[in-house]
Each structure stands twice: as structure tokens, then as C-alpha cells.
Amino acid sequence: MKTHYKKNILLTLGVLAVVSLIIPMFVSAKNSTSLATVTPNINAKNKKANTVNATTTADKIICDRLISFSANVEPKITGLKTKLKEKRDEITNKIETGREERDDKLSTKREQWDANRQEQFAKLLEHAATDSQKQAVAKFKNAVEAAILARRQAIDTAIKTFRDGVKKAISERKTATDNAVKTFNDTVATAKTKAQDDCANGVDPKTVRLNYQQALKAARDKFQSDKKDIEKLHGSIEPLITAKKLATEKAIADFKTAVKKARVDLKATFPKE
Amino acid sequence: MIIKKTVIILIGIIIIAGLTAGYFFFIKSPRDGWTTPLAQIGKKENTPPPATGKVDDTVNALLQEIEDETLASQEENNEANAIIDDSQTISDFGQTYNENAL
Questions:
Q1: A205-233 vs A2-127: helix axis angle to the nearest 10?
Q2: Which of A3, A87, A244, B34 has the fewest CB atoms within 10 Å, measured from its CB?
């Protein structure tokens, strides 16, 4: 009896020991199964979150880059506007200074020739022996003075017409350039504002960038087309040069004709040389 | 004989170099955007001749003044070049950015 009781106790303890060993294994297996199921879910969520973060960062970089790019363009345009103004002032000064110098030079030359001409007339008069010869010299002098006056007036008018034409051409060039620069500047500024707004409104940054690039390209193409038109305006100078040349040549030809006639008249009464 | 040939070739090169430099210095190169009128190059100043009392000398003196008037008219053409001195600055506006760098 005592032995049977002892066996039962040992059997019970053995079963408990086996159960105590098996149960944790089942629990562990179950836990393992549930962990294996949960972990991929967590990983997927993390991955998605990372992707969103990465996209947001990349988008931000693109938008920041657009803003930074446009911020660099603006000072360049402003700087060029200043440079253009300085260049124009330089051109104006050059032209004005050049005109003053040429006017002074021509005026000085004319004074020299005026003085020389009086000496020439005086010498002619010294060689005039008779009253008719003296009258012929006086007539020659009047004819020459009139011819010189006419020639100088014609050349002065030709130069003035040319200068007025140049002034007009400069003004037209300035207006056309200012218009082209303004259009360019405004288009670039509008493109920038649109890019900033699009970025702020969550438009796909790649689309924003593409639109911005296209707008900038269009602005530059338009400006370059306008620039070609501006250069074409310079074509108005060539006819001015030609007109001045022809007017000068005519003034000189008229003068030569008048002097030739005066010479023939004088020679008719003047002693043989 | 070889030395003589070398000297001749060297002199030739120096002459050609001198002529080329002279050509570019006096004719081709604009000075501050202004070009030297061809009529002025290598010409002495046109000074009035002394009076002789002879009709032909007097007439020649009168005609000589024409040279200065013609030159004065020609020199105005320099302004044509000055007008477009701002061309490069205008062109630079088109170079303010490269949108492909975006």
C-alpha cells in the first residue's frame, strides 16, 4: 500500500515536470508566432513613414533650391540694369564730348582759313593794277565768300541732321531696350512667384521645377528675340551716314562750281601770271 | 650661305610682323570704342598755304579748306559705333541664369 502511494506521488510529480516543461514551449511558440506576425507590420509602417519623410525632404530640397536659384537671379538683373545705365551715360558723354571737340576743331580750322583767305585777297589786291582789276578782285572775293558761306551752312546742316538722327536712334534703342528688359524682368519675377506659390500649395515639386524651367527659358528666348530687333534698329544709322555724305559732297561740288566760275571771271581781267 | 639665308628670313619675318602690328594698331583696333578715320591716318595736318597773290594759288588755297570740312563730316560717323557700345551689356541679361542648372 505504502509502495503504491509512493508510486502515485512519483508519477504525479513526473507528469507535472513534463507538463511544466511542455507548457512554456507552447506559450513560447505562440508568442513567437504572434511576434513574427506583428514585426513585419511594424516594419512596413516604419518603411512607409520613412518613405513619406524622404519624399517630404526631397520635395523641400527642390523647393528650397528654386527659391535660392531665383534669389540669385534677381541681384544679377539689378546689377545689369545699373551697368546698362552707366554704359548709357558713358555713351552719352562720349558723344557729347566728341561733338564739342569736333565743333571746336572745325571752328578753329575755319577761323584759320578765314584769316588765310583775307591774306589771299589782300595779296590779290596788291597785284591788281587797274580799277577794273580791283573791281574784279572785289567781285571774286564776294563770290567766294558767298560760296564758302553756302558750303559751310550746307555741311553744318548735314551734320546737324545726322546728329539729330543719331539722337533719335539712341532714344529708340533705349526705349526698345528698356521694354525688353522690363518684359524679361517681369516674366522672371512672375515665374518665381508662381514657383513659390506652387511649392507652398503642395504642387508636385518636380512639376513646379519643370514649369519654372520652361518659364525661364521662354523669358530668355523672348529677350534674345527682342535683342535682335534692337540691333536691327542700328540699321537706321547707315542711311543717315549716306545722306550726310551725299549732302557734304553736293555742298563741295556746288562750292567748286562757284569757285571755278569766280576764277574764270577773275582771270579774264587779271594780268597774266 | 646658310647664315645669309637665315638673316634674310628673319628680316622678312620682322617686316611682316611689323606691318601686321601696324595694320591692327592704326586701322583695325578701336580706341575706347572710337575708330580712327582712314582719311586721318598717315596724313599731315592740313595747314593754310601762304598767300602769293596769284589767282591759281588763291583758288588752290580755297579748295584746300574742303579737306577739313570733309574730314569734319566724316568724323561724325564715329557716333554710329558709339551707339552700340551697350550691346554686350544688353546681351548679358540673357546670361543671368541657366535654368538647366535647376
A1: 10
A2: A3
- How many Å from the N-terminal Cα to the C-terminal Cα in chain A? 184
Residue B101 within a domain:
no
DSSP state of B28: I
Residue type at position A266: L
The answer to whether position B99 is within a domain reads no
Does B99 sit within 8 Å of A166, measured CB to CB? no
Residue B100 lies in a domain: no
- A-interface mutation test, from B74, B75, B99, most A Cβ less than 10 A away: B99
Q: Which residues contact B34 (CB under 8 A, 6 or more apart)?
A: A94, A98, B78, B81, B82
A144: Cβ contacts below 8 Å, ≥ 6 apart:
A117, A258, A259, A262, B62
Contact A244, A159 (CB under 8 A): yes
Task: Confirm if A155 and B72 have CB atoms less than 8 A apart.
Answer: yes
Report the distance separating Cα A160 and Cα B76, nearest Å.
10
Q: Which of A94, A219, A161, A182 is nearest to B86 (CA)?
A: A94
- Chain B residue whose CA is closest to A228: B91
What pTM was computed for the model?
A: 0.72
- State pLDDT tens for residues A74-107: 999 999 999 999 999 999 999 999 999 999 999 9
Residue A8: burial class (beta carbons within 10 Å; 0-12, 13-18, 19+):
exposed
The conformation of residue B37, written as its DSSP 8-state character, comes to P
Nearest to A73 among B52, B89, B97 (CB): B97
Task: Please list every residue in chain B whose beta carbon sits closer than 8 Å to the beta carbon of residue A116.
Answer: 48-49, 51, 61
DSSP character at residue B27? I
Query: Phi/psi at B34 (nearest 5 deg)?
Result: -110, 135
Query: Three cell numbers at A84?
Result: 546698362
In a domain, residue B9? The reply is yes
Tell me the residue range of the domain where B18 lies: 1-30
